[in-house]
Amino acid sequence: MSVVIETQDLTKVYKGMSKAQDLVALNKLNIQVNEGEIFGYLGPNGSGKTTTIKLLLSLIFPTGGKMKIMGNPNITSPEVRKHIGYLPEGAYYPDFLRGEEILSYYGNLYGMKGASLKKRIDEVLEVVGMTRARKRLIRGYSKGMRQRIGLAQALLSDPGILILDEPTTGLDPVARKEIRDLLIQLRDQGKSLLISSHELLEVELISDRVGILFEGVLQTSGTIDELLTSREFSIKAEEAAPEATQKVREAGLITEDAVAGKASLRVPETMSLYQALDICKSQNMKIVSVSPRRETLEEVFVRVVGSAVSSKEAQRGER
Ligand code: ADP
Known about the structure:
CATH architecture of the domain at 230-294: 2-Layer Sandwich
Number of helices: 11
CATH class of the domain at 230-294: Alpha Beta
CATH topology of the domain at 230-294: Alpha-Beta Plaits
CATH superfamily of the domain at 230-294: ACT-like. Chain A, domain 2
Helix content: 25-40%
Shape: globular
Strand content: 25-35%
Radius of gyration: 24 Å
Bound molecules: adenosine-5'-diphosphate
C-alpha cells in the first residue's frame, strides 16, 4: 500500500500586523492518505482544513514542514498536479451554461481538446450519472446534480487523487446518499480521496480512516474501527417494570429506551459490566442480550475536541 498524500510537521502561520497578531492555522500537521482509501478530514470551522487543502494544491505556501504527493516532494510541478482533482466547497458554475459546456470549459483549461476531450466528457458524465441531463441548463439542476457536475469536473483529467471540500454539505438526504455511493464507487475503482467535512455521520459512513483537527493541531487519526472503540456495553432487558427501570437509573445505568416492559440500558464507562448485571438482577429484570456498544464518530469528536478545549483552558488558567 503506498502513501499518496503525506505531510510532515506542516505548519502555516498567517502573518498579522505584529507578531502578537500572527495566527497559527496549522501546527506541525502529520497526516497520510493511502492509495485507494477515503480519508475523512474532520474539524470544526476554523480548525485549518481549508488551509491544509490550499497548501496541498499549492494555492498558498507553508511556513514550515514538508508535503509529498505520490512520494514526490516537488508538489508544485505540473507532473504532480495532474494527479489531483479538486472540488471546492459549494463550487459555483454559471447558471446559463449547460452541464456539458462547463466540462468543456474546464477541459480546455486543463489543455484537453478535440475528440479526446469529447470522449472524456462522455465518460465522466456517465460515471456521475449525468448523461441524460448533460444538455440541460445548470439553472434547472438540483443541488445534487450541480455537485455531480462538480465531481465530473474534478474527474476530467482522470486524476488518481481527489480532494473534495465538504462534498455533501447542503444536499438533501437522497442526494447525499447518491453522492456517497458515487464516492465509494470511485474509491473502489482505485482513486484515493481526501474529504474534508464537519458532517460526521456522512464521514463515518464512507471513510476508511479519519483525522480530527482542532485549532490547527491533529488531535487523533486512525481507521474508523480504531477510533470507534467499544468503551461501553448495552444491555437489553425484559420484564422491566417502570419502578425497576427507575431504580437501575438511580444506580447509575443510562436508560436509552424503555417501553412496554422492554428496556435498553447503557453501562457507563465508569461501571463494570458485572456491577451493571447485578443491578438489573436485583430488580428482577430478564436480561435478553449484552453487547459491546461502539461509540459514534460524533461522540469521539466531542470527546477529542472537548478535551482539547479543556486542556487549553487549563493552560490559560496556569498562566
Ligand atoms: P476550516 O477550513 O477548518 O474552517 P481554515 O483553514 O479556513 O479552517 O482556517 C483556519 C484558521 O486560519 C482560522 O482561524 C482562519 O480565520 C484563519 N485564516 C484562514 N485564512 C486566512 C488568511 N488568509 N489570513 C489570515 N487568517 C486566515
